[in-house]
Structures are given as C-alpha cells and as structure tokens.
Amino acid sequence: MTRLRGLKDLVHDAVEQGATAVERIHRSTAAKPFEVLRLIPVLEAPVGTLQSLHDAALAGTYGMVRWVNRAVDGTLDVALDRFEQRQLLATDSQGHPSSTTTS
C-alpha cells in the first residue's frame, strides 16, 4: 500500500509541477507577440486588454488543472484509507483472515 501511495504522490506532484511549468512557459511565449504589437501606438491599449484577457484565461485553465489534480489526490487518499481500514478489519492481530469475513 505504501508503494501505491508513493506512486499517487509522484503523479500528483508531476501534474502540479508540470502544469505550473507549462503555464509559465506558455505565458512567457505568448507575451512576446503582445510586446511587439504594443510598439504600434494605436494598438497599445487594445493589445493590453487582450493580453489581460489571455492571461486571465491562462491562469484559469492551468488553475483548473491544478484544482482537479488536488481533488483527485484527496479522493484517492480517502479511498486508500478506506481500503486499508477494510483490510485491517478483515485480518486478526496475527495477520490471518478474520472469522467474521465471508469468502
């Protein structure tokens, strides 16, 4: 069970850190065309508005990925806890199947 929890934690951390890294790269890459377009005086204000909208959408999207990741992590913690409790109830103090369990 420890290995399963370790794998769950590894996947959770990979998704969390991966989403954060990709968001940072995405934001940095998208900023370059906005910077160039802002050099055109007549486009400076509209481009600023578009970049703000873009950045808000970006934050919301990657934030949702991280939120779902945390929800899945918490759900799996509860499921693994329940599974371990059932396993403990199904065995006696010496690790033998309990006489109250059915086959």
Structural descriptors:
rod-shaped; 2 helices; mainly alpha
Task: Provide a descriptive summary of the structure in words.
The protein is rod-shaped and about 80 Å long. α1 (2-38) runs antiparallel to α2. The chain has helices spanning 2-38, 44-89. The protein is an all-alpha fold and 103 residues long. It contains 2 helices and no strands.
Give the topology:
Elements: H1 2-38, H2 44-89
Task: Please provide a brief summary of the model.
The chain is mainly α. The chain has 2 helices and no strands. The protein is rod-shaped and about 80 Å long.
Largest sheet: none
**Helices and strands, in N-to-C order?**
HH
Average of per-residue pLDDT values: 92
Helix content range = over 70%
